[in-house]
């Protein structure tokens, strides 16, 4: 007998099909059209949002509890894991550990040991389960190496995910050069470090015809470069995390290490430029950048603390806030959270269309709660949004039509 799940009385939000009231049928793990069989399990969604499951690209660590809380059904971890994802055995092991509830699509290292010198065995890593190749937390300074990476990736038809910060300018910096960094006496780098790196990588991508994904763009100049490159037909996409849409470097004013991020928080003008890029379609992906860090890494002087934020569990409510404020529509929001990431990784998922995997989440968009760093599910609660009132919680999720316990 087939396994069937019939979700009724839902407010369906689909990047491909828009927003409407209706029902969804999942049979043997796949969304189908037609009448529900008599033996189907029926779930009354009571008018709540039913959306594609979130695909989180560029997480630093695998964190099942945080992913479940945030409605994340698939993740693409960065290559700078332990060990580095530069050989097929490491890639394959990571790709298999999350199933069946959390599917893992590794980003393999573009260079051996992420050292930025010798190319890694990309083709073998792709055959082992990698869905992209990347530079990790660093930028490949050698333009010749980056050119070879892009040419190899082009021939393999795989996207290169890069961290866009010129290491020569950003080395040792924990803040963006400006009034806040000066007042706090923090080591800083000019925001120029980002567009400088972007400009070179865009030129190389344009010359080679390779696919380039800029993992987290945060500056007005960076968005302008990406916008212009897209207009020229360069195969480039870019992402962002909510922190750079909602916070400026003023969030660092009391030396809060939870606001020590990579890239560092930017100026208010850059934040406004990020919102404009979200609205005009320059930004393709919205991700958490999930990087859990314990007290031993965060309860230190700001300059000594590790950069990173654990925001897989907060991504959804923060994103819903952007829709509530009129920054994006709900279908566009889930294009950023699901369809766009799926396309980047070459996955046939991310919508509620018939034939797609039954990876869906049920959301109470009006459920109020307050982000509490001490109570966030997952490996750590180091979020710059600690104490922020938000709305929206995942009340149920299904992976391939199978309920995932919260």
Automatic annotation (TrEMBL):
Its EC number is 3.5.2.3. Keywords: Hydrolase, Pyrimidine biosynthesis. One of its GO terms (molecular function) is allantoinase activity. One of its GO terms (cellular component) is cytoplasm. It comes from the Bacteria. It comes from Sphingomonas endophytica. GO terms for biological process: purine nucleobase catabolic process; pyrimidine nucleotide biosynthetic process. This is Dihydroorotase. Residues 64-219 form the Dihydroorotase catalytic domain.
């Amino acid at each position: 007998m087939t396994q069937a799940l019939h979700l009724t009385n839902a407010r369906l939000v689909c990047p491909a099909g828009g927003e409407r009231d209706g029902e969804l049928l999942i049979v043997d793990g796949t969304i189908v059209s037609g009448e529900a069989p008599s033996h189907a399990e029926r779930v009354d969604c009571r008018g709540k949002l039913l959306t594609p499951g979130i695909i989180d690209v560029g997480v630093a660590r695998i964190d099942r509890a945080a992913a479940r809380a945030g409605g994340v059904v698939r993740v693409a971890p960065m290559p700078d894991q332990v060990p580095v994802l530069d050989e097929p055995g490491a890639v394959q092991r990571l790709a298999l550990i999350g199933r069946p509830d959390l599917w893992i699509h590794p980003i393999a290292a573009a260079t051996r040991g992420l050292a930025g010198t010798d190319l890694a065995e990309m083709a073998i890593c792709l055959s082992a389960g990698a869905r992209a190749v990347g530079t990790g937390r660093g930028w490949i300074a050698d333009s010749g190496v980056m050119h070879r990476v892009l040419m190899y990736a082009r021939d393999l038809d795989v996207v290169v995910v890069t961290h866009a910060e010129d290491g020569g300018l950003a080395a040792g910096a924990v803040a963006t050069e400006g009034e806040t960094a000066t007042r706090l006496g923090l080591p800083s780098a000019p925001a120029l470090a980002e567009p400088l790196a972007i400009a070179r990588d865009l030129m190389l991508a344009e010359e080679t015809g390779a696919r380039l994904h800029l993992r987290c763009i945060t500056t007005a100049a960076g968005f302008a470069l990406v916008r212009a490159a897209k207009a020229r037909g360069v195969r480039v996409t870019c992402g962002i995390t909510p922190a750079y849409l909602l916070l400026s470097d003023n969030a660092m004013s009391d030396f809060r290490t939870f606001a020590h991020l990579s890239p560092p928080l930017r100026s208010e003008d850059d934040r406004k430029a990020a919102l404009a890029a979200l609205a005009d379609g320059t930004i393709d992906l919205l991700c958490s950048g999930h990087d859990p860090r314990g007290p031993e890494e965060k309860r230190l002087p700001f300059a000594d603390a590790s950069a990173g934020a654990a925001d897989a569990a907060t991504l959804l409510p923060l994103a819903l806030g952007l829709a509530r404020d009129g920054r994006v529509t709900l279908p566009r929001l889930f294009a950023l959270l699901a369809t766009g990431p799926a396309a980047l990784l070459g996955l046939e998922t991310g919508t509620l269309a018939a034939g797609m995997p039954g990876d869906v989440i049920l959301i109470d968009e009006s459920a109020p709660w307050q982000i509490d760093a001490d109570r966030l599910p997952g490996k750590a609660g180091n979020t710059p949004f600690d104490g922020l009132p938000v709305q929206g919680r995942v009340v149920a999720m299904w992976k391939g039509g199978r309920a995932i316990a919260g």
